[in-house]
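Please check this today:
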Amino acid sequence: MSERKVSERKDLDIAFLRQRLEERRADISAHSTHSEDYRKPVELDQQAVGRLSRMDALQNQQMHLEQERRRLAELDRIEKTLSRIESANYGYCHNCGEAIEKKRLEFDPTTPLCVECAAHVSHS
């Protein structure tokens, strides 16, 4: 795959997509900070919390840990996408090198694959 310039994709509003990604990154970081207390270990003090309440607290903690895992995965996708924008490789499929459809990128600016390659990956 040859090195491409962002200017080759005149059909994309790169500034707008970058702004969306940066706003989403800030939103995720805010949610992560807000839920930090919910992810802390659950206390073992049986006097302070009954058994069922503790089970609820453990389940709640696990849900918040999973949400955080998903937030971190999305942040990783956003950071990789911003790097592709900066290196002028944004908008092209990682597998085949063809341009990714504009509508696909507008729906999910972090997608690294064209529809055809994504279909092959999901069927593997």
The domain at 6-123 is CATH 1.20.120.910 (Four Helix Bundle (Hemerythrin (Met), subunit A)). The mean pLDDT is 84. The chain has four helices and no strands. The longest helix spans residues 51-86.
